[in-house]
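Section 3.1 - Work completed
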Amino acid sequence: MLKHMSMLSNRIPLLAAASQWIGGALFTLFLSATVANADEDTKPIDVLVVVGAAGEQEFGTAFSAWADVWQSTCDRANLNLLIIGPDKQEVAHRDQLHSKIESIASVESIRPLWLILIGHGTWDGASADFNLVGPDVSAKELGDWIAAIKRPLLIANCTSSSGPFINRLSGPNRVIVTATKSGTEKNYARFGQYFAAAFNSVGADLDHDDEVSMREAFLKACADADLFYKEQGRLATEHALLDDNNDKKGSSYALVRGRAKSKGDGKIDGDLASRFSIPVGDNSIQLTDEQLTTRNELESQLRDLQTQHAQDDPAVLREKALPVLIELAKLYAPDQSPADESVAE
């Protein structure tokens, strides 16, 4: 038994990282390819990227580059990606987006849908809009469209004036990220550039599990955007928010990073966002739907234990968590034939 435990500890990084989790970090959920052996045309979409109207050529070049980063990320992670726009045709992307969301809504899966909005946004004091080629789509309209989606939903609105989208899109089993904290932050937002890049950055992997979660990408993008403004000697005109607890408020970088405390009894966002991730490397293990379901249950047990024993001696939490951590580790353990197993003398 001791020999088996030693082998498991040496071969599975998850156990080696257990002590780090005890200090407060939860393991992230792995996001991988959809149905195996299915034809490309029948595979559910994992990531839907929508590139809006550019307005000026320099913005169009930047937005296309961000979409290209998402393309390379999805190719590496074996995720099924669909990009709407940009194109040189005068096509109304609003209808394309609405139709695609309707078709996605019929898919039931434990795997999340990532919806990435790239471009410009506007705010008239009452309605926040995402600017598309052709008619725009408002936050309210998008909220109505996504209401029927049954999968976990991760939305990153990387546009100016995107803050009000949190009020409209926040909901159960959803993670909403916006590039700005309000509709009045109307200047060109660079958040989308850094957010896309974060999923290819080892530096974004704060818990060193070889994956970048939605929460980690949010933190990295916020830090990089802030650094840009500081290096340019300019006043920051965008302040991103993350919402994943259905309170329609959103949390700033400082709150999510733990550098500030919420006022009153407000809950800081980030827990759900930490559970959905994309691998950084090329050799990550891809779990089946059944394995993902098992991991979801085990992760839930770990969160409950952390809450129940928050005031106890860390040794108590460690003892309670170890059996769950071992079961998690088994999901990543290579298959071992009986010939590989032996009993210690």
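Second construct:
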Amino acid sequence: MSSNYNNLPNGYLETIRKGLTAVRSFRSGLSTGVGGRDEQIKRLKEALTSADAVVIGAGAGLSTAAGLTYSGERFEKYFGDFAARFGISDIYSGGFYPFPDDETRWAWWARHIYFNRYTDAPKPVYKKLLALVQEKDYFVITTNVDHQFQRAGFDKRRLFYTQGDYGLFQSVNPTNQKTYDNEEWVMLAMKAQGFVRDENGIYQIPQSGVNMRIPTELIPKCPDDGSDVTTNLRADDSFVEDEGWHKASSAYADFIRRHENLRTLYLEVGVGANTPVIIKYPFWAMTAENPKSIYACLNYDGAFCPKQIEKQSICIDGDADCIINLLK
């Protein structure tokens, strides 16, 4: 990490520390909130209206609600050839498959990135969410890497993508702590496989089918030192936290500090059990610290809160798209 970042607050580490503190302090059990569904919807509408600030914490469930599913019909449509040849069952597991050569592996990743980063979500859930908060002082922290917040029109200065971005490559050289935009490469690799743009400019599979390999000369390399590259996704300690990442982390930390004693709505949407220490647990902790704040959890089969903050919490079980429609 560059020494230039040392003077910036690290919102990522700070939020994890809050999360770890929350795990140790909430010991009286969990609650699904106070009141029925209609009452909780009403309370959330009121909280959105009265809040001085809204902090949105988003997980994979939000993108699933927006139609960015990693299995089923969408997977079969764009990755059916990979499924048939290699037995891959979904987009997520395909990212870990030991492909026989780099030409095939990077053909997979071109599709993986394109359909989850460079196309809009099938449902306008992100745009509906923006409509709820765009007149508010808001900030977004998300573990999603599909960039759908910015595609929907959220202010990029108010976004912190903690776990990376499908739209970036990083070098495998650990001394190189830069990231590289991959959009141009992705488009070339999609075209090389035989995908054809439709009337809306979206790559589709023609009747003649597509290839499962790209030319060797299209295998991406680092433009600075010619080394191999990989996706900028947090999988281990090799993840590159570049200048943009640190600025976003600092902006998040600053936003939290400026609003810690105000009427702040911590709106958690679609956060599962994989990384609760980044969003869910810190939101619990910050709600407990500020009696003016409200914690709202929108989740399918997973809306709950600690009993200690039950009276400050709104827990709504269901599909995020349906819930957001009720809030409009």
